[in-house]
Amino acid sequence: MSEHIVWHPSSITKTDRQKLNRHKSFVLWFTGLSGSGKSTLANEVDRQLYSMGVRSYVLDGDNIRHGLNKGLGFSKEDRVENIRRIGEVSRLFVDSGMVVLTAFISPFREDRNRVRELFEPGEFIEVFVDCPLEVCEMRDVKGLYKKARRGEIREFTGVDSPYEAPNAPELLIDTSESSVGDSARRVIRYLQNNGLIGMNNDIS
Question: Between 23 and 69, where is the model more confident?
Answer without folding.
Answer: 23
